[in-house]
């Protein structure tokens, strides 16, 4: 196990303080070989944005965005990473959790309360970079790994003894925009994916779980990173679609490649029948439906719908247990119709994204 001499320094940075160093919010050792690119301030001195570049030791970057919270974006991101790794090409796949204020990847990947990541020692790569934490064969990095567990309040300690103790995911990140922007740059460019247990030569694909909305974090990624594919997650209702519309406009303005739309929990199939029940009212296959019209209006209809996944209870249960359903549900003969459709749908999404990346790579 690599030593972690920076542990106490890093944890002290997550308490509200006006004297905190915003240039190095994660408290990583200074290393000129791994300096994150800087977004220049506006003004006559600035020469504009730096050119977009690849994430170190990552061949292809896939963004997963939702533009609206609560639609299953992080669940899709983890299952997408697993599905990509299970393709016949046996891709080396990792997950980067950039949802700084609400990280979910540690829970979904069964990595709650793990020890904070170690740092590279400078033998085969520059020292001072974060080492990803691996589970289910997928290396991951998340802000939650760098946080101490939230202190247990007196009210919660006097409640039921069988309640779960606070974890590092319960610790709030109380930062303003500049601190968040710098932390994102460090997570992007100062994580050594070649140091992961299952990816000594780096990653073929990095799945990046973006936070909801169109704020600082997706903007920073869009301005700094050479992205190969972006998928947007939505549920089949008009309210979610209104946020998706803004997200699509942002990605297009940043000239980022949009592979398409994934409609999560689109419908429900009861165990006693094969009929699809569109619980949220939006049927993307009905041209007269308001949801379908909205999808078409923003240019995301037709083959831009890369997946339509049914509501399956075991998907959520798998996430709570820290085992992605794309992994736990493989080859289970007890699957009902909806589960089989979900498994095939997630596989199709992975195939579509990888095929899209390969097509663009061939053209270049």
UniProtKB/TrEMBL annotation:
Keyword set includes Iron-sulfur? yes
* Record key words, sorted: ATP-binding, Hydrolase, Iron, Iron-sulfur, Metal-binding, Nucleotide-binding
CDD domains per UniProt: Mrp_NBP35 (cd02037)
Task: State the residue spans of region: Disordered.
Answer: 144-171
Q: Does this UniProt record's set of keywords contain Iron? A: yes
Top-rank taxon of the source lineage equals Eukaryota
- InterPro entries recorded: Mrp/NBP35_ATP-bd, NUBPL-like, P-loop_NTPase, YlxH/NBP35
Q: Which GO terms describe its cellular component?
A: mitochondrion
Q: Name one GO molecular function term.
A: metal ion binding
Checking Pfam families in the record gives: ParA
Low complexity bias spans: 152-166
One Gene Ontology term of the biological-process aspect is: iron-sulfur cluster assembly
What HAMAP family has UniProt attached to this entry? Mrp_NBP35 (MF_02040)
Q: Which family does it belong to?
A: Belongs to the Mrp/NBP35 ATP-binding proteins family.
What protein does this entry describe? P-loop containing nucleoside triphosphate hydrolase protein
